[in-house]
Every structure is written in structure tokens, then in C-alpha cells.
Amino acid sequence: MKKTPETTAGYAAAPAKPRGRPLSFDRDTALDKAMHVFWEHGYEAASISDLTAAMGITPPSLYTAFGDKAHLFMEAIERYGNGPGGFGQRALDEEPTARRAVQRLLEEAAAELTQDCHPLGCMMVMATTNCSVAAEHIQKALVKRRALGVAAMQARIQRGIDEGELPANTDAGALASFYATVYQGMSMQAKDGASRESLLGSVEMAMRSWPASPPTTARKRVKASA
């Protein structure tokens, strides 16, 4: 997914890399390491010294390559969304029904949020849970990013309604909000050490709340009139 004004959720883009002597380090590798620091500690708790130590660079190099801590964080969030956190959008895009899309999203979340090869939980959920007034702009940027995710789920559910998969009176917004809440709760539980199996149990319970499909004749009628 290409970076767009929407994907940065209203936060100003990082300054263009200045011309001149090339960087003495691999920018992508450094960004990956910064992403893990922010993911583990959160935005405010991750100090410049923590970041530069993990990235293997000096503070001046960080500022030259990324602008400042805030822009580095937003780049790290973008990288997370296109990497470890990209499973959700793929599920919504690839599955043939809304139910299968949401269930796959949650089941893959149970696996991804509990992997021991990276920090536990969802970076998008955990990174700004405790922020001071000074970091309010960062928190608001992530609120907008999370809202985009809920909107994508709502759009997939609405498509299911339009195609007759779900009853016509289904509230797509409320259903998307419910499953987004389940996902965020799973992230918190994973951070606290919940196992993949435990989270899959929660997914199974949550999917019992999915609206029953309308009768086949009604579904055919909707498709025929489309």
C-alpha cells in the first residue's frame, strides 16, 4: 500500500531526506528496529537513547534521516501497518464473505499478537495507551488510524449486507465496532501474556454473535435485484 495523506491520518509527512552525503546505515533496517522499540515501550516511554541504541546510529543521524522522534514514530506505524499489522486488511480484501473476513482477521490476530519474535499485542493499540498532553497530537493520529481500520471492516460488512449475506437490517457500524472492540481486547490480553489458544477461544465466542444469514430465497432475491 502506497503512503497517502489518508494513511498518515492527517499527520504531516516526514521531511524529505536531505541531499548530500549518503546515509552510513541502512534506513529500512534502522526503521524496523525503531518500530520494535516503539511497539515494546510505547511512544513517550521510548527515549531517543533507546531508539538510537537499537538502531545503531547517533542522534544527529536519526534527525537527519527521519526528522524527529514524532516523524520516526509515524514512519514506524506505517511500516507496522504494511508489515506485521497488515493481516487485517488482507483478510478483508481476500475473503469471499464478510463473516469469513472478520473471522480470519481475528484468528490471524490471535497468532500474530502472541508471536515471540516481536513485542506482544498490537502496536497500533498499545503504542499510545498512556500519553501526556505533549504527545496528544500523536495519540490523535493513531485514533484516526484505528478509525480507518474500523471503517474498512464496516465497509466489508456493508458489502455483505448488500450482497444478501447478512440481514438487511444489520447495523454495519455497530457490528464493526463490536469486532474492533474484541480485537483491541485481544491485544491487551496478549500483552498480558494470554496464549494463542486462549485468544482463539475468545474469537470463537465472539463469532457466535454474528447475525444469522437470511433465508436462501431472500438472499437470491437481493442478488437478483442488484
Characterize the structure shown.
The chain has helices spanning 27-41, 48-55, 59-66, 69-82, 87-94, 98-112, 123-126, 136-162, 172-191, 196-207, 216-225. Helix 1 (27-41) packs across helix 2 and helix 8 packs across helix 9. It folds into two domains: 27-81, Homeodomain-like (Arc Repressor Mutant, subunit A, Orthogonal Bundle), CATH 1.10.10.60; 87-211, Orthogonal Bundle (Tetracycline Repressor, domain 2), CATH 1.10.357. It starts with 26 loop residues before the first helix and ends with a helix. The protein is an all-alpha fold.
Quickly describe the structure:
This protein has 226 residues and is an all-alpha fold.
Write the layout of secondary structure elements.
Elements: H1 27-41, H2 48-55, H3 59-66, H4 69-82, H5 87-94, H6 98-112, H7 123-126, H8 136-162, H9 172-191, H10 196-207, H11 216-225
Helix pairs in contact: 1-2, 1-4, 5-6, 5-8, 6-8, 6-9, 6-10, 8-9, 9-10
Provide the β-strand percentage band. Answer: under 5%
Helical content (DSSP H or I, runs of 4+): 55-70%
How many separate structural domains? 2
CATH architecture of the largest domain: Orthogonal Bundle
Spans of at least 5 consecutive residues whose pLDDT stays below 50 are 1-10
